[in-house]
Write a structure and sequence with these properties.
mainly alpha; 9 helices
Length: 224
């Protein structure tokens, strides 16, 4: 009975924290005028989730922690976010051209290729958030790391993408969950899964685990 009560209490605490994170995400998005706020706010959510899952090194207020991450990641998160947005725009534009222009027998083959590219890019996109939160790298390196992660670990990347897709499907079926958990739930589930696989290297022992992102070069067969 005590164990069951403990699980319910823990679940309630996690749910409340995700709800508060979602509210902070909304505030962070609005603080940047949406176009400059959505990606830093998302990066801040991943940073807080990472810190929670890896163990908090010292107590801190959620709002202060989120604000610190938002300011720290403002430029890099916008650059990474709009880099992926450009990739999606290019892919959708090419898909539209193939769908509207008569290319003969090559049309169906190209359409199938673009579907595969869309799946690949989705896998990269949902992995980019956890990888950016964990690795202190430049935007080009993070894009490459995301691509290599999908290529080197297709099963892990696929399960990660499916987990996020399932949350999005649940949101579609139960829209009332969107204003409650928003981006926080898929971010938490995604990072928790990737961290549980052991593919994300732990920070050096002489530095706080939850505070520092990894900068040591790590092969994709070992770390990401």
């Amino acid at each position: 009975m005590n164990a069951l009560l403990g699980w319910h209490t823990r679940l309630g605490e996690v749910g409340l924290r995700l709800f508060l994170l979602h509210l902070l995400w909304l505030g962070g998005t609005l603080a940047g005028g949406v176009v400059l706020g959505v990606f830093p706010a998302t990066a801040a959510v991943y940073a807080v989730v990472r810190r929670d899952l890896m163990g908090r090194d010292e107590p801190s207020r959620l709002r202060e922690e989120f604000a610190t991450a938002w300011r720290r990641e403002f430029r890099a998160a916008n650059a990474l976010g709009y880099a992926f947005l450009a990739l999606w725009a290019l892919l959708l534009l090419d898909r539209h051209v193939v769908a509207t222009v008569d290319l003969g027998a090559a049309g169906p083959a190209l359409a199938g290729l673009f579907w595969l590219l869309a799946v690949f890019l989705f896998g990269m996109s949902v992995a980019a958030g956890p990888l950016a939160a964990h690795f202190a790298e430049s935007v080009p390196k993070l894009v490459v790391r995301s691509a290599l992660f999908v290529l080197a670990r297709p099963l892990v990347a696929g399960l990660n993408a499916v987990a996020v897709a399932v949350v999005l499907c649940v949101y579609y079926v139960v829209p009332g969950l969107v204003p409650v958990f928003g981006i926080a739930a898929p971010a938490c589930l995604s990072f928790a899964y990737l961290w549980s696989t052991g593919l994300l290297p732990r920070p050096k022992e002489d530095q706080p685990a939850a505070m520092r992102r990894t900068t040591t070069p790590t092969s994709h067969s070992e770390g990401a």
